[in-house]
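Hey, can you fold this one?
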Amino acid sequence: MQHKTVFANGVRVVSEHIPHARTVCVGIWVDVGARDEHDLTNGCSHFVEHMLFKGTPSRSASQIAMELDVLGGMSNAFTSKDVTCYYGMVLDSQLPRLVDLLADFFLNSLFADEEIERERQVIMQEISMVEDTPEEQVHELFEGLLWGHHPLGNTILGPMEVVSRMDRQKLLDHVKTFYTPDRIVFAAAGNVQHQDFCDLVVSSFASLQQQDGELRKRREPHELPLTRKIFTKPLEQVHVTMGTYGMPITSEERYRLMLLNILLGGNMSSRLFQEIREKRGLAYSVHSYLDAYSDSGYLGIYLGVNPDNVNRSLAVIRDELDKLRHGPVTDAELANAKDYACTGLFLAADNLEMRMTRIARNELYFGRDVDFDEVVAGLTQVTAADVCQLAGNLFGRGMTSAVLGPVADKDVEWNLLTGRAGS
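Sure. Predicted structure:
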C-alpha cells in the first residue's frame, strides 16, 4: 500500500511498504531537468547532479563514495529532460544511514572550485562518448529537429562550449532556483514503514524554505513543420531515428498509445521487427519507443542499417505505418499486446528500484497513486478500432527524421515516407 505525506513547505514523501522485502530503495526526485534550461545554461541540471557527490562540510567526495559502497546495495543518479533523481538501495536496517547520507549531499554540497574543474573534464568526456556512440547521437539530433528551439530540443549533457564555461555561481543559482521544496519528492519502496521514513526525512527537509516570488512555469512546446535532415558522418552503418508528436504522459489516450507502440515496434513479434529484421534481414536493431512529458510527447522509431538498405527500410516502415492507419488490427494481435504490456508491468513490480520509480513518477505527473489495477483496466478497455484511429491521427502527418551516417541528401529517397492518402 502506498502512503503520502506533504510537509508544510511542500516537500512530498511517498512510500510503499512491501512486507516480504529485506531491502528498501530510496530516491530524492527533483522536478527539474534539461527542459528548464536555456541556451547559456544547457547542461546545468546534469552538472549539478554530478557535483552533489563531490563533498560536503562533513564528508569529502571520497568519503561519500566509500560510505555508499560500505552500505552495500547500490546507488546512482540521473538527469533527464524533466527530472533529476538521486537514489540508493540498501538492507532495511541501513535505511537511517542511507537517508542521512542522501540528505547531507543533497542539502550541503560545497561545489568547490577544484571539484568543479575536475568534474567538468569528466562531463566533457561523457559528451564525447555520446558523439562516439551513433545510436545515442542520432536520438539527440532527432529531438533537436522535433522540438526546435524549445529547451526539449537541447541535450541533457549540454554542448561543449557551454559546459566549458560553467562556473560555481551558475550552478548555485540553478540549485537556488529549482531545488525548492515544492519540486522535491522523497520516495521509498520496500520494507519501510511510512511514519518511520517521514521521521527520518523531516529533520532535514521540513525546514527548507520556499523561495519568494511566483513558481516558475515551464514553456509548453509547439508542434513544428515536418523536418528531415541528413547528418553525414563516416560510419559503418546508417542510423535513422524518426518520429511524430504523441501526447502528454497523463493523456486519457495513453493506454492506446502504449499498445500501438507495442504493435508497431515494441517487441520481437511487432510489425517492424518482423518485417525489417526477420523477413528481410535489413537491420539488426529496429524498434519503436515512447517519450512523454507532462505537456507533450512523441513516438519514435530507430533502426541501424547498411547504407544500401536505407531506402528499402524507409519503404517498409511507411507500409507498416499505413497498415496500422487503415487497419485491421486483429483480435489476436491486440490480445497479445495487452498480455505483453501487463506482463511487463508485473515483472517490474518485483524490482524495488522500479517500484520506487513508479510511485515517484506517479506523484510528479499525476499527483496521486496510479495502482496496477487501474493500469490493467485502462489497457483492457482499448479496442482494435481505438488503436487504428490513433494510428491515423499520428501517422497521417508524416515523420520528422534524422539520418546519421555515410550518406548524403541525394542518397535518401524521402518520398518513400509519403503514405497513402486518407485515414
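The domain at 228-417 is CATH 3.30.830.10 (Cytochrome Bc1 Complex; Chain A, domain 1). Let me know if you want another pass with a different chain boundary.
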